[in-house]
Write a structure and sequence with these properties.
The protein contains 10 helices and 7 strands. By secondary structure, the chain is α/β, with parallel strands linked by helices. The protein has a 7-stranded mixed beta sheet with strand order 3-2-1-4-6-5-7, sandwiched between helices. β1, α1 and β2 form a beta-alpha-beta unit.
């Protein structure tokens, strides 16, 4: 019996999705070829669903309805029939072929509720790399008070995910951060390694604006209404 379901929210990711799916195929997690992978598509017009279906020979791929990332992720989680659900973004790469396996092993060994990893941006500018390094440092420090994770890589115990209410579908920004804050400190861990991402969000929004938004998010951690307001994050088209 499979123990893992993978959910990928996506919209117009035809350019970057193959990079993710190729790296997923190469994961040494033993049942990766039979692991259910849901691509929650939010009305792509660039052939994203067709690209996903093209991997049916190597992955148990199914395209389902999406929307905002929270909606797409929840749609996939509701369909999952496994004890663990891994949420990953469509624009990342799992360069370490052992990452998924090690994350699942860590989850099981320590009876965790949520496992994440670090973020690296090797093709970005020095500023991009510094900001992502800052993100990783904040993530490690968050284990001392309230866990913090981004949706690029979030492995959840499905039962606990359901108990926490899943991703807030009315959240217009940082729904991943909002959910991770509810995870108990002693049930949260960071698996060594990293996922690779691009700097396209910084290029679209600018370093200053995005950094200010992230700092504001940290200051509004206890104010849920902040996450329900439109911060123009998705309007950037990134």
């Amino acid at each position: 019996m499979n123990e893992l379901t993978i959910v990928i929210p996506a919209k117009n990711e035809a350019r970057l999705l193959p990079r993710l799916l190729n790296s997923l195929v190469l994961q040494d997690y033993p049942p990766i070829s039979s692991t259910k992978v849901y691509l929650a598509d939010a009305g792509s017009t660039d052939g994203t669903p067709e690209i996903a279906r093209g991997y049916a020979e190597w992955l148990d791929m199914e395209v389902i309805p999406g929307g905002l990332p929270a909606v797409g992720r929840n749609n996939g989680a509701r369909r999952a029939r496994t004890p663990y659900v891994l949420f990953i973004d469509a624009d990342i790469e799992l360069a370490d072929p052992s990452l998924v396996r090690r994350a699942v092993e860590l989850m099981k060994r320590r009876n965790l509720h949520c496992v994440t990893t670090n973020i690296a941006c090797p093709t970005g500018t020095l500023m991009d790399q510094m900001l992502y390094t800052g993100n990783n440092i904040m993530q490690y420090l968050s284990r001392l008070y309230r866990p913090f994770s981004t949706g690029m890589f979030m492995l959840f115990d499905k039962a606990r995910f359901q108990d926490l209410g899943g991703f807030h579908e009315q959240a217009l920004y940082a729904e991943d951060y909002l959910l991770s804050q509810k995870v108990a400190r002693n049930r949260f861990a960071i698996v060594p390694g990293s996922v690779l991402t691009t700097n396209r969000r910084f290029k679209k929004m600018g370093h200053f604006k995005l950094t200010r938004l992230f700092l504001s998010t940290a200051l509004h951690t206890w104010n849920e209404s902040y996450f329900l307001r439109d911060h123009k994050y998705w309007h950037s088209g990134a």
